[in-house]
Amino acid sequence: MECTPKGVRLKGCPNEPYFGSLTALVCQHSITPMALPCRLIIPKRDPLEELNESSSQTSTNSAAELLKQGAACNVWFLGSVDLESLTGVQGVQKATTVILSMNPPPTSTVVHFKVSAQGITLTDNQRKLFFRRHYAVNTVIFCALDPQDRKWTRDGCTAAKIFGFIARKSGSSTENVCHVFAEHDPEQPASAIVNFVSKVMIGSQKTK
């Protein structure tokens, strides 16, 4: 490219005219090749954007595959709280407050928490409180960390993050229940569980 007081033109091509700007030069050469061996092809979209979309699509696809197989980990089950019609972050906050203010504290147990395309399945490893509970994917409406970032400090936990998911009460289309948990394994943080339930499981329902 050659810049002169007259304008811009292709260097070493005296038969090329001068253009007022680089944009004008590119635009003209996209219409006719002139001194170039072929016309310039201007991409309609930023290639970087397409690359980002492609990698985002890949991660979405792999998450969807994982959902088909099911992802599972152990967590502390702290209890369930009726919310009537309350949902969202306020529902998780209220349920956490109820659980933490119980006196005596609730009986907690380690449960196997499995998320799949069918929903969420809880299995009480020691059968302390129940054997197995399943919440169908179309009944689970919200999942989040405690917005006040309170921690579970019992059961030998020093500061386990608390989270909950809200599901429709069995047989009801308006009443909700929040099931409250605390992280058990540092390698399976509550934030990762919440992200998977919210973005992959609940998200997959919204895109259908």
Automatic annotation (TrEMBL):
Subcellular location: Cell junction, Focal adhesion
Key words of the record: Cell junction, Phosphoprotein, SH2 domain
Keyword match Lyase: no
Gene3D superfamilies: Pleckstrin-homology domain (PH domain)/Phosphotyrosine-binding domain (PTB), SH2 domain
Gene Ontology CC terms, in alphabetical order: focal adhesion
Domain PID: 68-208
SMART domains per the UniProt record, alphabetical: PTB (SM00462)
Family as reported in the entry's similarity comment: Belongs to the PTEN phosphatase protein family.
Protein name: PID domain-containing protein
